[in-house]
């Protein structure tokens, strides 16, 4: 197994910078409060429709389920907003690597199914970003103010 | 930048429009992304030209372009499940037994869907049909009939809610959440499980069969399938929304991942730079949208979007070309 140390360093550095930036931005734009609000609204419609069902009000039951459905769509949209902020910069970084730095970071001694002869810069970026997030960011989150939403 | 199609500023601007509209109207995000790729930036044509220039046969180049468009669509869909599903699991909001039953069918469906032969032209035609019907639905949502109905529904809900409040105390959400799920009975014909304090009963085979057909249709068109799964779970199995939310998004993730792998194996070559720039735009637009919503009536944006979707729906279906209108 041969490791391209220079490429591994540059790609890991990019992953660390982008991951840190994403954590700071997503903490500022966190949708957690909005999601909690919508979820309690969904719960409310669910309880109301159950009550309507218990008293035999079929049309009322259908009406609450419909409103619950619409509220659920709002919930999905809120999740999408949150997710796109957390993912967009990573995809952009992966795109830059795919286009301008398509090097093999680790060359395997044998052909591995799904990877081929080696691990490229895109794959190495994903591993570095995950490792940095779970090993560093998660541990630092309680200590660093910028890594948390403003109300936490 | 060396992009297959379009220039980065235009792609960013289109992304902002998509994010703006999606966050304001709550629909048509994937369709606008598709319109951007095929009509604004002509991504498919540029890709076919690039591949043919590199010596790839025309039929193969067209198939690769079609599969790449589908992967781009699925990529736009998959981001929210990627972020949300681990959190849902952590918060015990996924009805795992139900998700596993549906996912069993979904995996098979998402493998078979991409195998069903469909040319780029046919794909665009059917996407046009979907676009056209969503346009009609959006138009309907701007009519007085719909708005009156919705208002009436809200008024009835408020009255009923007030009455219920008088009669009973509300349940404790957090205590129930801590319980998560528990399988009470599981065999081929029956699955009974307790989720957040309530018992549900479903037929696992029916769940898997439904998931199978939904996955075939969704993966054929490069969609997540959430728009079919939510009504399926809530109407056929009569499951409440708090069960449907976490479960359906988990199934969407399974379907999208399997379909993306299938399309990559069939020659799709996703352009991550193109998608990355567009996603940055979508992120900006989705936060700008709600902030500026108070300055105009949402109805007009909805009407405008409905007109755009109807127009492009007919264009994809080849109606304008058949009428000899050179659009």
Automatic annotation (TrEMBL), chain A:
TM region positions: 6-29, 83-102, 122-140
Protein name (Swiss-Prot/TrEMBL): Uncharacterized membrane protein, DUF106 family
The organism's place on the tree of life at top rank: Bacteria
Keywords: Membrane, Transmembrane, Transmembrane helix
UniProtKB/TrEMBL annotation, chain B:
Bilayer disposition of the protein: Multi-pass membrane protein
InterPro entries: TM_pro_TauE-like, TSUP/Inactive_protease-like
Keyword RNA-binding: no
Signal peptide range: none
Pfam family, one: TauE
GO cellular component, one term: plasma membrane
Domain of life: Bacteria
Main localization category: membrane
Keywords per UniProt: Cell membrane, Membrane, Transmembrane, Transmembrane helix
Subcellular compartments: Cell membrane; Membrane
Regions that span the bilayer: 12-35, 95-116, 123-140, 205-230, 237-261, 273-291, 303-323
Record has Transmembrane as a keyword: yes
Family membership noted in the UniProt record: Belongs to the 4-toluene sulfonate uptake permease (TSUP) (TC 2.A.102) family.
The protein, known as: Probable membrane transporter protein
Source species of the chain: Desulfoscipio geothermicus DSM 3669
